[in-house]
Amino acid sequence: MPLLICFALVLLAAAGIALWPLWVRRRRERIANRPFPPAWRRLLRRHVPLVSRLPARQQLRLKGLMQVFLAEKPILGCRGLRVTDEVRVTIAALACLPLLGAARGVYPELRQVLVYPGAFVVDRPVTESGGVLSDQRRVLAGESWSHGQVLLAWDEVRRGAATPGDGHNVVIHEFAHQLDQHNGPANGAPALASAAAYWRWSTVMQNEFDALRWRLAGGEPGLIDAYAATDPAEFFAVISELFFERPIELAAGHPALYTELSAYYRLDPASWI
């Protein structure tokens, strides 16, 4: 009898593990299909004008993703910031924008979002000459951590949301890092469908990254911000901002880059304008 009980418990545990993804998927479908609160709709119109560019079907999908995001990802205020509906709706809308085209989950590794009133300080360990380890203090408006946290400065979030044509958006930037970190440390190559896709991606990105550095070395201005030349991870995050905020200029000036981003995100923002 004890053996039968143990066997039954093992079967129940196995069934629970097997059915868990199905339960999660159905729960998310229920949340996504809830009526979108009218107050949130007004906040979107007032504070996130980028959403108005989307086709009606994409707006509907975005609202469903936002509801799942807000149900699963705590948004916590730091240094006295009060997390209002404006804070939550603005961050959720911009964070979910990169998820519109592909069914890749709502940032499965993300545990929470920390929001500061303004720029915040982060200490990072750096190795100096001679192998000496020390802390480097940096003042930031956003930071994505691979162990499940995104940090944001609310004043910069609000400014970026209100000016969707300038190509700068800290939320899109940091959540592009989250996508990049899905398959390991951020390196500018998010999870792609095949070896051929990786080859095309790496070829285009490396060529564009090298061209940016050459232009900057020659003092030549361009569409892509100089910060993108920091490393491939920052390059991917910066061009993702442009992809969503200035897609026509990106497609015209860097067509190969736009094509790769469009294939990855499975979106064509240039057609929204």
General description of the model:
- This protein has 273 residues and is of the alpha/beta class.
- The chain has a domain at 187-273: Collagenase (Catalytic Domain) (3-Layer(aba) Sandwich), CATH 3.40.390.
- The chain contains 10 helices and 6 strands; from the N terminus they run αααβαβββββαααααα.
- It has helices at residues 2-32, 38-47, 56-72, 85-96, 154-162, 170-180, 195-217, 232-245, 247-253, 255-265; strands spanning 75-77, 112-116, 120-127, 133-140, 142-145, 149-153.
- The strands form 2 sheets. Strands 1-2-6-5 form a 4-stranded mixed beta sheet. Strands 3-4 form a two-stranded antiparallel sheet.
- β1, α4 (85-96) and β2 (112-116) form a beta-alpha-beta unit.
- α3 crosses α4 (85-96), α4 (85-96) packs across α5 and α6 (170-180) packs across α8 (232-245).
- The radius of gyration is 21 Å and the shape is globular.
- It starts with a helix and ends in an 8-residue tail after the last helix.
Give the structure's gist in a few sentences:
The chain has helices at residues 2-32, 38-47, 56-72, 85-96, 154-162, 170-180, 195-217, 232-245, 247-253, 255-265; strands at 75-77, 112-116, 120-127, 133-140, 142-145, 149-153. The chain is of the alpha/beta class.
CATH architecture of the domain at 187-273: 3-Layer(aba) Sandwich
Structural class: alpha/beta
How large a portion of the residues is in β-strands, by DSSP E? Answer: 5-15%
Kindly report the name of the CATH homologous superfamily of the domain at 187-273: Collagenase (Catalytic Domain)
CATH class of the domain at 187-273: Alpha Beta
Largest sheet, spatial ordering of strands: 1-2-6-5
Supply the number of helical segments: 10
Mean pLDDT: 91
> What's the helical proportion of residues?
40-55%
Largest sheet: 4 strands, mixed
Which residues form runs of ≥5 with pLDDT under 50? 12-16
Total beta-strand segments = 6
Shape: globular
